[in-house]
Amino acid sequence: MGIAAIGALVVLLAILVSQPESHTSLELKLQRSQLALVSAQLEQLEQPLQHEVIATRAVWHSIAKGLPAHPESRLASQISIARAAAEALPAPPFLQYRHKLIGPAGRISSLFYEFEMLAKHGWAHVDQATGSLRHGPAKVASFERVNAGLYIDSIYDGHFDASLIGERVLSSYRRLGEQHAFGFSLTQARVRSIALAYSPNAIRLTPHLWQELLASR
Hints:
With 217 residues, the chain is mostly helical.
C-alpha cells in the first residue's frame, strides 16, 4: 500500500471515529441518556474515591516493590486503612445492570467494575499476606510473600482502569453531540469535573511494581 493510500486510510478512520456511535436517532438518544445516568452516579462517588486514592497512595511507595519479609506495625496499619477505604467504596447502581448498558455507558461501567473488584480483592489479599508475614507459620508467610506481587499489581491495574474513565466520558460526550445534544441532563462543566476526578493525575499510582523490577535488571 502506497503512502498516499495509507494517508487516506488514516483520514477515513479519523472521520469514522469522530462520528456518533450509532446511526439511528433512537439508539443515539438511548446512548446519551445512559451516559448521563452513569455520569451522575460517577459524580456521587468522587469523594469516597478520593479517600480511597489518598489511603492507597499513603502506603503505595512502601509496597510497590513488594512486601517486606517482616512488615512493621505502622505498615500493617496503613495497609488495613487502605483496605477499609477500598471496601467503603459504594457500589454505584449502574453495576447492577451494567450488562444491559450500551455504547460508552457499557464500556465505562466495565472500567469501574474492574477497578472496584481489583482494588477490593487486591487490598484484601495484601492485608491477609501482611498478617501472615507478621504472625503466620513460616511456610504460609513464604508463600504469601512470593505471591504478594500479584496482589499489589492488581491494585495498580484497578487504579489504571479507573484513571481511563474521565477521558472516556469526555470523548463519548463529544462524539454524542456535547451540550447541544444533552441539554441540562449532562453539562460541559459536569463532564470536565468528571474528567478531572477520574484522570491519571487523580487516580493512577506510581511507581509500578513491574516497572521497578525491569529497571533493576
